[in-house]
Amino acid sequence: MEAEKQIELLKQRTEVFLGEEQLIERIRAGKKLRVKLGVDPTRPDLTFGHMVVFNKLRQFQDLGHQAVLVIGDFTTRIGDPSGRSVARPILTEEEINENAKTYLEQAFKILDPAKTEVRRNSEWFGKMSLLDALQLARQMTVARMLERDDFAKRYAAKTPISIVEFLYPLLQGRDSVELRSDVEIGGTDQLFNNLVGRQLQKDAGMPEQAVLTMPLLVGLDGERKMSKSYGNYIALNDSAKDMFGKVMSVPDATMWVYYELLLEKSPAEIAAMKNEHPMEMKKRLASALTAKFYGEEAGRYEREQFENVFSKKQAREDMPAFAWDALVPAGAPDASLVDLLAATKLFPSKKEIRRLIEQGAVKIGDRKASGVGERLEKAAAAGTVVQAGKRIFVKIL
Amino acid sequence: MEAEKQIELLKQRTEVFLGEEQLIERIRAGKKLRVKLGVDPTRPDLTFGHMVVFNKLRQFQDLGHQAVLVIGDFTTRIGDPSGRSVARPILTEEEINENAKTYLEQAFKILDPAKTEVRRNSEWFGKMSLLDALQLARQMTVARMLERDDFAKRYAAKTPISIVEFLYPLLQGRDSVELRSDVEIGGTDQLFNNLVGRQLQKDAGMPEQAVLTMPLLVGLDGERKMSKSYGNYIALNDSAKDMFGKVMSVPDATMWVYYELLLEKSPAEIAAMKNEHPMEMKKRLASALTAKFYGEEAGRYEREQFENVFSKKQAREDMPAFAWDALVPAGAPDASLVDLLAATKLFPSKKEIRRLIEQGAVKIGDRKASGVGERLEKAAAAGTVVQAGKRIFVKIL
């Protein structure tokens, strides 16, 4: 595909795209672009938030370029402070390795492994000395670092910033030098760090990487960014059932954002969808996202399950109530379960009622009906809910 | 000597003395204190400014304690920004080693080598990894670093501060951990760095060092601190002649500071000296300081030389002038040098004049008189200065 057309596609859904001209030149020259994405294995799972950047990386792969996935096993020991108001906790090497392993499994649910170079930044940082660190630290000023939005806010609020946090962006930038990346992809909060990479490449006399940032995905609450630490997230390794259910829980406005950033729908497609019933569209979204990770069949199955539970809940909320005396002959102290249910006129025949009891599909309160000969006493029956099959609920007053 | 008496002596001339109580305890417990002084071999020579702290270290030695002299061969690669408004230039390893060598020679003009442990901080920093650096950087906040006076000023003035400069105080502090120092001596501008050492020792679970700072010595200009970069300094390896001459050039007020900080005179002694003639006292100061480095004889010799030159200069400034016609018979186009000089009546006899000429001690302008038969022509002689011996100058008009 010609360079301009590629760039047009790659530009979709980005917030910042810097160095476009240089990229066009490199694509024209026939270069397979090295497209860097770094993830720090700070927790055991990736979220749908990561999916936004992974989707973009996948798009590069589909256009024939080389994904370079950097597992920040070394930088995780510092903790990227980007967009956070407190320093991250320190992880052990074991935790980091465990997390890195699951990250890869999850990343390959979206990326094409054949077109992905996986690197760990301990490869180069593990060999670096104190002197190397000092030379790196020399390449950045305190003032420039304090211009970064989150640092500026923390400094103003007198929230401690450890000096080690000033070194993080330099290390991330150094990754770009080591990997000779042509592009770095990241969330919006990575813009500063990605620009540092550009500077360090320039200082090292190599062509600068383009920088491409994606919007941060909003979480299930529809308010804050999706984050493992806010608990408002869907993990890439959540079960199909949880994935479907969590998507169903988002506000309508958030649903359209997910259609855009997770399913990569165009503005025109989304405009058309807005004419449909929102509940139906949310089910389709949940089904499509579940299908992405667990296959079409799973997507369909989870929708069915969800609808069953939903209908049952609906039935229960709307259930009819009957007075004892309206169902049995006047003055009778007890009645057969079959006669009682037949008197509600909710069943086609006594035969159908007997069949349900025999299948064990009839419940009196919390216990299963014992058999077709079961009788209920008036006093005991008062206030009881009888369920027959999945959707019929009857309350006895 | 008992602990309190030692502390009283050690406190003399200090600006800050922190941790006095702990020191008293350690001395009482019979501990030989480890007294750290760090110097960065950034230039080929030490100055009289260093002498102030070296004198204090020597005082510790004289009381039986252990001097630990740290040659900052590693930290010099960063450059201590203390009290400076711009970052220092980077030195090569070779320059650093060369400087370190001459530093030691100079330091031992003041310190007792037998009671001095010399260490280079490359010993431990040369082995440290990037990860060690990060762990060190974690121990300090940006805000605390920006409280340091010089950083605060530079930040406010928007003068760039490199992040590497924030690491310097941490490295200097780390030296104290490695050396388990009981005391750190430094100039006033080292107070912040020395306190970092105290903190890092505490973090490492060891007893904290006392901190003792000395005033910064004022330079030859009597205004700015003595510094190699201001050019207003006396180097410990200046020649005896330069040393004497430079001391003679300081303003009177500065002379008393030198008596106090370099010769360790008490306020009472200085008060008494102020009754003497300032020129005499300055000669004594210059002589004593020269003697400290080159021996008593050299001190005396330089004073004598100085006085000779000074008298000669005086003689030249006051020299008499004679009209040609007043010295020779009227109308004579030339005259013998001997007759000419005899006519000035500045010499006891013609014999003495001849002796001076024969010794080569008579100069006509810039050239030596050729012999006792020399004659001068009127036209050529006009405006010439004739010097005979060291102190007689005659101008012919």
UniProtKB/TrEMBL annotation, chains A, B:
It comes from the Bacteria. It is found in: Cytoplasm. Transmembrane segments: none annotated. The keyword Nucleotidyltransferase does not apply. HAMAP family: Tyr_tRNA_synth_type2. Homodimer. This is Tyrosine--tRNA ligase. It comes from Candidatus Spyradosoma merdigallinarum. The gene is tyrS.
